[in-house]
Write a structure and sequence with these properties.
RHG40 protein; about 350 residues; single chain; mainly alpha; Rho_GTPase_activation_prot; globular; GTPase activation
């Protein structure tokens, strides 16, 4: 349990809080910007880690000189306390208390009508306000497509910020912030956020199928420097969009496994040379190649770490909160995975 929380703190960019003496460094800046709900989520993980650490490392027998004050242990303890996680979090809580309360306006879900998807206020804070107002969301059984809630993202004074608007340096901070917010949201909803260990990538001599996304993009960028989505995936989808959208069961009906295997070998040999002829490929075989490409990735497209979380999000009863959780999960994905998923 302690190891899991330690991994979470590292993923959240708070690794300095681990160990005997927590170093504030840049963390105090990050922690001071957290909302009350987010700070509580981080504190909960830190407490669990600390309890596990104490159980693992039992305190040694006290020295007699400490008991009778021969050594000035109080000053040493005071120095340690100043840099401890408890003292750090006392400062964070104090700064949060001094802030002015914000007005969180929330609306009850209304199927069939347009509803605002508010991105200006932390999702976890919105959920906390709904729970305080005795809001209880129930799963809806939709009889027809017209009853789905329609969401709109309002353009604020500064517009809507999208992934492509941020610099590479800013994007490095987004996954850690999204993880803290997602954890806080799940805590409020009573929803367990499970995380697996990273998958061990298998080495392969192939260049297209069974190759890690990063490696595949490196090969693609030798041909087209600004490539962000694997060229093979782009080619497969383009082929399906041009000639396969009218084919019944295009992703359900399987193509010929013999032809698909032969096509895979031809693609490995001829794709980068430009000699592969897509117009001669049967559409169901193209869909088979698409499924094979995704299936043979060494690590899942949604990553091994958070694949269980993606699968479990559907259990969140409220549609807006389900979309909020998915929004945050996608922000946590590595850039190649996020671009490929999009």
């Amino acid at each position: 349990e302690g190891e899991a929380e330690a991994e979470w703190l590292q993923d959240a960019g708070l690794s300095d809080l681990l160990g005997d003496c927590a170093s504030e460094n840049d963390n105090i800046v990050l922690l001071s910007t957290l909302t009350k709900t987010q700070a509580a989520a981080v504190q909960r993980r830190l407490d669990t880690y600390s309890r596990s650490r104490r159980r693992k490392n039992k305190h040694p027998v006290r020295d007699v000189r400490d008991i009778f004050g021969v050594v000035s242990s109080e000053e040493t303890a005071a120095e340690k306390k100043d840099s401890s996680p408890d003292q750090l979090w006392h400062n964070v809580r104090t700064s949060n208390i001094q802030r002015k309360p914000q007005d969180y306006s929330c609306t009850v879900r209304n199927p069939g009508k347009e509803e605002v998807f508010n991105t200006d206020i932390a999702y976890s804070e919105q959920a906390a306000v709904l729970l305080k107002g005795s809001f209880r969301s129930e799963p809806r059984r939709l009889k027809d497509g017209n009853t789905l809630t329609k969401f709109k993202i309002p353009k604020g004074r500064l517009g809507v910020t999208r992934i492509g608007d941020l610099s590479a340096q800013d994007m490095k901070k987004i996954p850690t912030l999204a993880l803290i917010e997602l954890t806080a949201l799940c805590d409020v909803l009573g929803f367990e956020l499970k995380r697996n260990k990273a998958a061990k990538l298998k080495t392969t001599e192939k260049r297209l199928f069974g190759v890690p996304l990063n490696t595949l993009l490196e090969n693609d960028q030798k041909l087209l420097p600004n490539t962000k989505v694997p060229l093979l995936l782009q080619a497969l989808l383009s082929c399906l969009e041009k000639r396969g959208l009218d084919t019944e069961g295009i992703l359900r009906v399987s193509g010929s496994q013999t032809r698909i295997k032969s096509l895979e070998q031809k693609l490995e040999r001829d794709f980068y040379t430009g000699l592969f002829r897509w117009d001669e490929v049967h559409q169901n075989d193209v869909s088979g190649l698409l499924k094979r490409f995704i299936r043979e990735l060494p690590a899942p497209l949604l990553t091994a770490e958070y694949l269980p979380a993606f699968a479990a999000v559907q259990n969140i009863p409220d549609l807006k909160q389900r979309l909020q959780a998915l929004n945050l999960l996608i922000l946590i994905l590595p850039e190649p995975n996020r671009n490929t998923l999009k």
